[in-house]
Amino acid sequence: MIIRFALNGEEKEIEAAPDRRVVDLLREDLGLTGTKEACGTGECGACTILVDGAARLSCLMLAIQLDRRSITTIEGVGSMEALHPVQEAFVEKGAVQCGFCTPGMVLASMDLLREHPAPTREEIRKGLAGNLCRCTGYQKIVDALEAAASHLAEKRGKP
Amino acid sequence: MDAMHDDPYLTKVRGWDGPAGGAPEVGTSFPRADAWSKVTGAEKYAADYYGQDLIWAGAKRAGVPHARVKAVHVEEARRMPGVAAVLTHKDVKGTNRQGVVRKDQPVLVDDKVRHCGDAVALVLAEDRETLKRALEQVAPDLEPLPGVFDPEDALRPDAPLLHEDHADGNLLFKADLEAGEGVKGFSACDVEVEHDFQTPWQEHAYLETEVGWARVEEDGTLVIVASTQTPFRDRSEAADALGLDIERVRVVAPFPGGAFGGKDGITVQTLLGLAALHAGGRPVKMWWDREESFAAGTKRHPARLHYRLGATKDGILKALQVYLLLDTGPYDHLGGVVMTLALEHAGGPYRIPNTSLSARCAYTNNPIGGAFRAFGVAQAAGAMEQMMDLLARRLAMDPIEIRLRNVLRKGDRTPIGVSLQHSIGMEECLSALKRHPLYLEREKWKAGAGPFKRRGAGAAAVMLGIGYGPVVPDVANAKVRLTRKGRIRVYSGVVDMGQGNAATCFQIAGSILSQTPDTLELVLPDTERTLPSGSAAASRTTYTFGNALIGACQALKQRILEKAADLLMAASAEEMVMEPGMVRHPVSGRDVPLARLAAFMAEPERTVTHRFRAPTAPDGIPVSEEVRIHGLGHTVFSYAAHLACVEVDELTGEVDVRRYLSVSDCGRVINPQAYEQQIQGSVAQGLGYAVMEDFKVRDGQVETRDLSTYILPTAMDVPDVDVVAVQTHETTGPFGLKGVGEIGTSGPVPAIANAVADAVGVRLSRWPLTDERVLEAMQGMEALISGKDEHRRYDIR
Amino acid sequence: MRPVFLPKNLGEVWEAWEQAPMASVYAGGTDLLVKLRAGLANPPALICMERLKELKGVRDEGETVFVGAGSTHTELLADPMIQAHFPVLVQALQVLAGPPIRNMGTIGGNVVNASPAGDTLPPLYILDAEVEIWSRVGSHTVPIIQFILGPGRVLLQPGDLMGGLRIKKRSGRWVHHYEKVGLRKAQACAVASLAAILKTDANGVVEEARLAWGSVGPTVAVCPEAEEALKGRPLCVETLRDALPVVQAAISPIDDIRATASYRRHVARGLLLRLSLLGGQ
Questions:
Q1: Are B717 and C189 in contact (CB < 8 Å)?
Q2: How confident is the model at residue B281 (pLDDT cuts 50, 70, 90)?
Q3: CATH class of the domain comprising A85-155
Q4: Is the pLDDT of residue B793 over 70?
Q5: pLDDT tens string C129-183
Q6: Which of C142, C168, C194 corresponds to the end of one domain?
Q7: What's domain B475-613's architecture?
Q8: What is the CATH number of domain A2-76?
Q9: Regarding the domain delimited by B299-469+620-778, which CATH topology (the fold level of the hierarchy) does it fall under?
Q10: Is A33 in CB contact (< 8 Å) with chain B?
């Protein structure tokens, strides 16, 4: 069936089986391998994307559910030339090691900051509790979110 | 979709994606070169390789722990539309055996199934759905054999044998060592403590599971792209097992999405290679899902340890007796090496004049034990550091004080007799711990526990030998080139699985050649383009490859200066100075850009290789050559002192690690951020091992089959870790450094167990310290949930 | 390939069921899609409910609040009426899974899934929630304690849909409490849980108590005897300890991969003692 949705700001029209997993549609049909799969059962968060701004797990979403939604994957967040403040903070604070959890973590972070623009470290940990990382111990990811929140606040002109 | 990967296996040359800036100074925090491509999702892992006409390969797993193979019925599966091939051991033209030390693991089983995860057939299909259904159709005809699920049972004379051709039955390896007077040393002791410990499997649980992609090229080369720590060894193992000329095999290693030892050796590579040989030139992909990774991948060895420790009434250690027994599962897979490292570290970082140490490693039909960060040491230190606290309690001594009284210093001999001639900061680590606010304020913090909560603090002192030991050469070969465009290209031989050694290459090359990072390039490990440099393991990559790279960069620098001197007709290379992008002759004020210089140099002139072999010291320890080959003993050690502050809930038994301090000596810190990354990450894995990662196996079947039942720490479960570096200077290390990859993993189990004992007065005989075990111990029950209540004694065999 | 329907309104749901009577319904998919992958369910078709406005929203009905079955956990956490009237449910939602799953999962899904460990269930039991069941021909209401029959089994006939929950507002000073014991701090399946609401007078003496335990039986365990035992007594450890024996009889935990029955028994009683911390609020 034909599915119409917005992907990283661009209107898309795709032919896909309605029950195709979104993670497979993104990675295999569209070549967007930035979204990862690490469990397939909703336990790890590596497949996190934004659907109308909210973090969702693409391994537990079927293609038909994309209809008329606005999807953001990691490829739509920033580019090498122009990183999103969250990405910049991840790089600067050393929040990236093997990097496999990173795309999902970045997107979950963006949703978190949208809901909580000035989160405490505890709130950050809570907000990222659905994204597993096996390399960092999370500390530098929390550091990065603090820095990103503060940077974004500055950009908004708030003290 | 063609656009994805035109030439997927030609590892691209990476540049620096960050801002142009000054030459990276050794000793400063420096963002990692790979961070940009990873944070934007642009980095391609082995899992991200697809391509036109892709075939999916999958293994049929045995599902039973021990059986004779009568037949494997593949006709039904072969007939299914969309199935390209179904292969069995008959299709394997080589030895059909793989393994690092002992090649005892089949690519596809031929005679016997030895664990549930054994591969009995390989299916090639057009898509994953078809692959799944075809695998269900493959019918192995198996005659079940009695299984061996306990390593002690495995060593009984009447135990069913896993490898009938193995001379020692189910005993894979053993080692016995005595120093001083052995157990006679107990007669000099005023006190003794004795305890048994039982440690679990630990699942690596890297986010990127075992995965790879392969294709036979038009010229007949088999190219394998794999998530691996060992591309060069993989190449020779694959050639051997599949019966190929090694020159025909190329292995490419992208950044793995985590490895931690679980990808030290063959995972998908041989099955992939076999599939590609039958795919008519089409690319093949094999990607283990999480459940398959649990069933078929390697894990940290479970162990049983018996400890007897004796000291004078002043707390001076006099005697140690240890028996340790590892369950290595069905295949060698470094089991003997793990056992040997455990033995070497059994006595911890202390002077103990009389030791009697015995270790055994047994084959069972349980999951495969293999390498896992701080292998052998995590088990041994988990036990020894609890023994030290037991002793301290018996003597009413402060736990840090008793450690300081016995701590190893330069020139001392370790409990197995290795003489410590290299940098050692163990005492300084303990002293720094004592001065730290977390330690100084611990009693006040403990007193602040709320209702139904009890707080405790516990410490641990650990050491870890880096590299391969005295016999197996710990060698790396670095290659660097001045490119035609005037850039410096480093050809890395060691895999970066997240530890950041790729970034360190930029730092080292930039520093020695005075180049800014935007002019540096990196080629990731590729058996066709980079040089053999050993495994990404044993905390050796930056130490060994870093040293090789320093040599190569220094030699390249010399060549560049000489050539520039020639070009500018200066008197000698000594008059020339490297600067970003150029070589300058201060005397005359003239300079030559590197790109221009390169034009005057043929490629061999612009390319330097340098080999480094890590030093070893013969110590005359009375063990066999075989034990020495397995790594006994090491020469350069890293050290750490850890402090855990925990809060135990009296109503649920929950152990909440509230604060944590790591003080380590890993030599000179060349990038503080990378150093902290390693320490924080390894502590987090140690914390999971200590309190929540309870891997369950029954009769050879994995019961915790996925991430919903095998519990990994989330962001809410790991506290902020204070990271302190005691910087000794290791003269043999690049810029004075030592390995930092593993040292943090061994501290959490004992530090947390000691803290729990401090908080609620109970000490368990096993870990993880799950809520259930802690609550039951607090309520007075012997905490051996398995039902085996009695303390065990082990007969030395 | 499995047909999937994405109905925009209730009428399209009935039509979909007419075309595919054996189709399974899902909203967030966090339970059903996991089961499909594991081969534990194999329906011929799926109906995704996420676009149905009729199932969304929290409505003030005066004495009651109506919660649409299709409300996600995140939506409910942010809803001022839920926050104001049902803090015990808010506390449970805060510890349910992790943020992405809370964005996807719905309260209807949690109820219909009827897991013994479902986090929303103990609170809904003590709030005396009623389930509104919709079908093509009409609707009717069933108390939640009758709606949930056993693990994974609810009182829905073929052609029935869970429309929502109707929960009565309570007057007076009630203290709300939910505690979940899991194997880690987030994204953990409950090993045992306790939902409690307590009405106390100005001196901290219990006037009324409602208690419900999760994960210690095939469905939520209630214990009216324990609730009685607390009445007229101050909310302190001694009072709660006296109630422990009857709690034992009310629960029937099992051994499973996460915990033993013995541990669940210990903890179910321990959780009751924790209520002593609420005294004086």
A1: no
A2: very high
A3: mainly alpha
A4: no
A5: 999 999 999 999 999 999 999 999 999 999 999 999 999 999 988 999 999 999 9
A6: C168
A7: 2-Layer Sandwich (3.30)
A8: 3.10.20.30
A9: Aldehyde Oxidoreductase; domain 4 (3.30.365)
A10: yes
Chains contacting C (3 or more CB pairs within 8 Å): A, B
- What is the rounded average pLDDT of the residues B595-623? 93
Most B CBs within 10 Å: which of A35, A36, A125, A139, as the mutation test of the B interface? A139
Q: Which CATH number fits domain B48-145+210-287: 3.90.1170.50, 3.40.220.10, 3.30.499.10, 3.40.50.880?
A: 3.90.1170.50
Residue C104, both tokens: 């996807």
A86: phi then psi, degrees, rounded to nearest 5: -65, -45
A145 touching C, CB under 8 A?
no
**pLDDT for position B619:** 79
At B195, which amino acid appears? H
| Minimal-distance CA residue of chain B relative to C276 | B451
Provide the residue ranges of all domains of chain A, joining segments of one domain with +: 2-76, 85-155
Rounded to 5°, the CA angle A130-A132-A138 comes to: 105
User: Is C266–B711 a contact, with Cβ atoms under 8 angstroms apart?
Assistant: no
C-alpha B263/C-alpha B260 separation (Å) is 7
Domain of C129 in residue numbering reads as 4-168
Q: Is residue B606 classed exposed, middle or buried when 0-12, 13-18 and 19+ CB atoms within 10 A define those classes?
A: buried
* Complex ipTM tops 0.95: yes
SS3 annotation, B667-713 = ECCCCHHHHHHHHHHHHHHHHHHHHCCCCCEECCEECCCCCCCCCCC
Q: Which residue of chain A is at minimal alpha-carbon distance from B209?
A: A38
* pLDDT recorded at residue C54: 97
Q: DSSP letter at B350?
A: B
Q: Answer yes or no: do C123 and C242 share one domain.
A: no
How far is Cα of residue C41 from the mean position of the Cα atoms in its chain?
Answer: 23
Q: What tens digit of pLDDT does each residue of B427-437 get? A: 999 999 999 99
- Residue to substitute from A62, A68, A72, A131, interface C, most C β-carbons within 10 A: A62
Handedness of CA B377, B383, B388, B389 (dihedral sign): positive
Interface of A with B in 112-131 (CB under 8 A): 121, 124-126, 128-131
> Cα B362 from chain centroid?
21
Q: Which residues on chain B are in Cβ contact (under 8 Å) with A135? A: 258, 498, 677, 681
Average pLDDT over residues B192-221: 97
pLDDT digits (tens, 9 = 90+) for A117-140: 999 999 999 999 999 999 999 999
If we measure between CA atoms, which residue out of C58, C24, C68, C249 comes closest to residue C169?
Answer: C58
Q: What are the pLDDT digits (tens) for C216-245?
A: 999 999 999 999 999 999 999 999 999 999
Q: Cβ distance B495 to B256 under 8 Å?
A: yes
